[in-house]
Every structure is written in structure tokens, then in C-alpha cells.
Design goal:
Length: 255
């Protein structure tokens, strides 16, 4: 048998691909395919960090109803306007956290619409002090950016003897003694040894979608399918992808 992901039929950049059935859910009628396409990577990255790495309780009751499971805690989501950050904000709120986040001012209202109580400008020189004033004794953080100083700023904002932060990129720098860091590759969930994560996070995703709890990322559909991939990467390199997910229709590629 071909190992998962070693054969092109499992790959992306194509209209149809083969997936393992335990890793899929039905798309509710209320979602377009473009909207649904924004969710798997962002959802799994956010959910793995919160529920598998941090081992927070799933926000699901015994009957499968989405129900908050955390009380009296604040979650900092650094980069709430990114695709992963938008899902971390939403999952944090759904779990019962009071969520505070960072973004550019043009995306403040967007991140608030996802449920964040307060959104701060990450470019402010006193950003750490602003977070500390809003969330003294902060224990939990999700750094959805994990570069350009966000990790160090997040460490500085935490103030708890058992602080925990999820990172989305590998980090080899110094970690404060009181802080535990977590890092996962979302795609790893489909590999051997991750059956437990898959069997809890996929039913949660299904429940969230069916019960109308998840807002997909705003979508920007790129023209001419795969012909626009380079343009999309250029936009990302230039920091021009802000609060949206680029979506490509491979079947529209001009050969
Ligand atoms: N570990 C995994 O499995 C995994 C999976 C998926 C993604 N990732 C990683 O997660 C990161 C985010 O990916 P994504 O697809 O969610 O990104 P994205 O949506 O393309 O990110 C764009 C957003 O990032 C925000 N941003 C950029 N620099 C920031 C900073 N210093 N502080 C706060 N916000 C900042 C921008 O906010 P404003 O426009 O508001 O300024 C923009 O809205 C990437 O590094 C990606 O490689 C990891």
C-alpha cells in the first residue's frame, strides 16, 4: 500500500484528491466550497494546539452539543487576523475563554467579529504592557505568527508559574523557565500514531460546522487556477495578504 502523502493522488493543487475517510466531514449547505477550503488547515492547526498539545477539554457535551468547557481564563491569540489565528480566536471563545488578540488596526473589527473582546496593534512599542494591563496573570497564549518577535513578546506577556503557549513554527530560542511551549505540524494528524487526536478533533469540527459555530476566513479567489500561485506567494511575501485566505480553483488553470 502506498503510504499516505507519498503519492500525488493525496496531494493538493488538484480538483479532486484522495483522503482518509476518518479525516473528513461533510460540508454543511451554508458553506461554499471556497469558504470550506479555508478551514481544514487553520482549524486543525488551532485545534491541535489547544486540545491535543495544551490538553484543554473539548467544548462538547455528552450529547455532542458545542458547550464551553473553560471558565475564568483569558487566552491571548497573537495574530488573530491570520487564518490560523482566526480559528484560534473562535475556538478560544467557543471553549469559554475571554480572548484578547493582536492585529493591524484595519483588522480590529474583523477579529472582534470572531469573538475577541479586545484587539491590540502588534506594532505598538508598548504592546506587552498593554496585554499585561488587560490580562494580569496570563497563563494561556496561542502565537499564530511565531516570527518577527511575536514569540518573545508573547513570552513577556505571560505571567503564570504554569504558563503555556502554542507556536505554529519551530523555535529554538530561549524559553522562560515558567513557560511550556507546544508545536505541531497540522498535517501530521493524518499520520500513524495520531488516531486519538483525529478521532476527537474531527467530530468536534463536524459539530462546530453543523451547529453554525465556525466563521470561515474571508476568501479571495485568485484567477486562472494554478497560474496565479506565484502571484499569490508574491502577495504573501509582500505582506499584502491581510485578513483573507487566497483560494485557487485548479480546474481553471490555463495550460
Ligand atoms: N504548524 C502548522 O502545521 C501550521 C499550519 C498552518 C500554518 N502555519 C504557520 O502559521 C503561520 C500563519 O499562517 P496563516 O496561513 O494563518 O497566515 P496568513 O493568514 O497568511 O497570515 C496573514 C496575517 O498575518 C498577520 N501578521 C503578520 N505578521 C504579524 C505579526 N508580527 N503579528 C501579528 N499578526 C501578524 C497579518 O495581520 P494584519 O494584516 O492584521 O497585520 C495577516 O492578516 C505561518 O507562519 C504558517 O507557516 C503552521
Amino acid at each position: 500500500m502506498t503510504r499516505f502523502a507519498w503519492h500525488p493522488k493525496f496531494g493538493i493543487y488538484q480538483k479532486y484528491c484522495v483522503v482518509i475517510v476518518d479525516g473528513t466531514i461533510a460540508i454543511p449547505e451554508s458553506f461554499s466550497f471556497d469558504q470550506a477550503a479555508t478551514l481544514p488547515l487553520a482549524y486543525l492547526t488551532a485545534a491541535l494546539g489547544l486540545y491535543t498539545s495544551m490538553q484543554l477539554p473539548l467544548p462538547l457535551d455528552a450529547a455532542g452539543k458545542v458547550t464551553p468547557s473553560i471558565t475564568g481564563e483569558t487566552l491571548l491569540v497573537w495574530g488573530g487576523s491570520s487564518s490560523v489565528g482566526a480559528l484560534a480566536v473562535q475556538l478560544g471563545v467557543i471553549s469559554g475563554f475571554r480572548v484578547i488578540s493582536t492585529a493591524s488596526p484595519r483588522n480590529f473589527e474583523y477579529v472582534k467579529s470572531l469573538g475577541a473582546e479586545k484587539v491590540l496593534d502588534y506594532r505598538d512599542a508598548d504592546i506587552v504592557d498593554q496585554i499585561k494591563a488587560l490580562a494580569p496573570g496570563l497563563r494561556y497564549a496561542y502565537d499564530a505568527i511565531s516570527e518577527n518577535g511575536s514569540i518573545e513578546a508573547t513570552f513577556s506577556a505571560l505571567d503564570h508559574p504554569a504558563a503555556e503557549v502554542v507556536l505554529v513554527l519551530p523555535f529554538s530560542g530561549a524559553v522562560p523557565g515558567s513557560t511550556r511551549t507546544h508545536y505541531n505540524l497540522a498535517g501530521g494528524i493524518y499520520g500513524p500514531g495520531h488516531e486519538a487526536a483525529l478521532s476527537s478533533l474531527i467530530p468536534l469540527w463536524d459539530a462546530l460546522m453543523r451547529q453554525g459555530k465556525v466563521i470561515p476566513n474571508p476568501v479571495k479567489v485568485m484567477p486562472n487556477g494554478l497560474n496565479s500561485i506565484d502571484e499569490g506567494f508574491d502577495l504573501m511575501r509582500q505582506g499584502k495578504v491581510s485578513g483573507v485566505k487566497l483560494v485557487y480553483h485548479p480546474q481553471e488553470t490555463r495550460i
